[in-house]
Amino acid sequence: MMLGDLGADVIKVERAGTGDETRGWGPPFDQNHESAYFLSVNRNKLSLAADFGVDADRALLRDLALSADVMLENFLPGALNRSGIDADSLLAQNPALIWCTISGFGTESMRPGYDVVVQAESGWMAITGEPDGAPVKSGMALVDVITGKDAVAGIVSALWHRDRMASSGTPLNAVQRRVHVSLEGSARAALINVAQNTLVSGVEARRWGNAHPNLVPYQLFHAADRPLVLAVGSDAQWLGLVRALALASLADDPELRTNAGRVAQRKRVVGELTTILATRGAAEWVATFGAAGVPCGVVRTVQESLYGSGATAECGIPPAVPGAIRRPPPTLNAHGALIRTEYWSAFDHVPILVPFRV
Fold first, then answer.
1. Judging by DSSP bridges, how do beta strands 70-73 and 98-103 pair with one another?
2. Which helix (H) or strand (E) holds 284?
3. What are phi and psi of 100, to 5 degrees?
4. What is the reported pLDDT for 349?
5. Whole-number mean pLDDT of the chain?
6. Residues 94-107: what's their mean pLDDT?
7. Please, are residues 219 and 230 in contact by the beta-carbon 8 Å criterion?
């Protein structure tokens, strides 16, 4: 979907008869009985239903790949070869083709990849939740999202290198045109500072709830009417905070002037802030801290966060990258007849400059 937002022509090849499994991941469903889950990630695509057991369908897919810039797939190892879709052959026949594989646990693993399983095995759940509670997964399928973004980065990079090397007269070979990302790899890489804390200290990471292992105060507090978050990321912001609160006991303590000192006295700092923040409403605190240059925000509901964003029930949240929504998510095989007769020219009906085909 991100590639489509960026201007790519995208043909989504789905299983004949049933289509993408996420079409049934509901409720809720829209008026066409498409699941909200499916709608959230399938705009800007044409849908083609195909059967790998049919010779004509396999030939169609090979023909499409031979004139495409990118082939993106997430089959288990060997599945496409058994179906007559051979990556090595297609890369050899189409020297411009970039082939991206998304797996769960790497190119050699036969384990299917599901977000929550990877969250569990990559350390995410071990560090998410209240300190004395059970491990908790992220509220959204964040591993899936991050892996998709990693795939976009890999594909765009490969396209750039392909064109750069072609202009120099030394085109990329087939191996260089293979991009592989995995849910496990993306999830592990996303541990970032949590992983580094463990590597540097030798101490196992643990759950901090809504607090931060390295920064104080950087967590959720309760105002008189609703929760809010403070994110003090610098010593200057700390001074702005305690001065705005007129907390002389904290402002005048030299040991709290640095973040390391505040981390050492986490319980005291958090305790005093908890008491005073509960005395006024969140909106008043946000205004006060905003004037003092202290990062702060209320905990909004999803509906509150979407208000004014331009999000719609049909096409979801607008692109976060420079892009455009050109087509709503397709019904199953909505463009099958058109693609089978016109191939990539099926996209000519949408007036837009298209940089590549997926």
1. parallel
2. helix 282-291
3. -110, 125
4. 54
5. 95
6. 96
7. yes
Percent of the chain residues past pLDDT 70, beyond the cut: 98
Separation between Cα atoms, residue 120 and residue 281, nearest integer Å = 37
Q: Is the pLDDT of residue 117 over 60?
A: yes
Strand partners, 230: 219, 296
The per-residue DSSP string of 59-125 comes to HHHHHHHHT-SEEEE-PPTTHHHHTT--HHHHHHH-TT-EEEEEESS-TT--PPP-HHHHHHHTTTG
d(CA 275, CA 342): 68
Separation CA 320–CA 357 (nearest Å): 21
pLDDT at 110 over 60: yes
356: tokens are 């590549």
pLDDT computed for residue 354 by the predictor? 57
**254-301 pLDDT tens trace:** 999 999 999 999 999 999 999 999 999 999 999 999 999 999 999 999
**Separation between Cα atoms, residue 192 and residue 187, nearest integer Å:** 10
Task: State the angle between helix axes of 235-244 and 282-291 in degrees (0 to 180), rounded to the nearest 10.
Answer: 130
Q: By the 8 A CB rule, do 274 and 222 touch? A: yes
User: φ, ψ for residue 187 (rounded to 5)?
Assistant: -65, -40
| E-assigned strand segments in 189-324 | 218-222, 227-231, 296-298
Q: Which amino acid is at 149?
A: K
- The pTM of the whole model exceeds 0.85: yes
Q: CA angle 134-138-140, nearest 5°?
A: 145
**pLDDT class of 351 with cuts at 50, 70, 90:** very low
CA distance 245 to 81: 66
What whole-number distance in Å separates Cα of residue 354 and Cα of residue 7? 5
291 burial (CB, 10 Å; 0-12 / 13-18 / 19+) is: exposed
Catalytic residues: 144
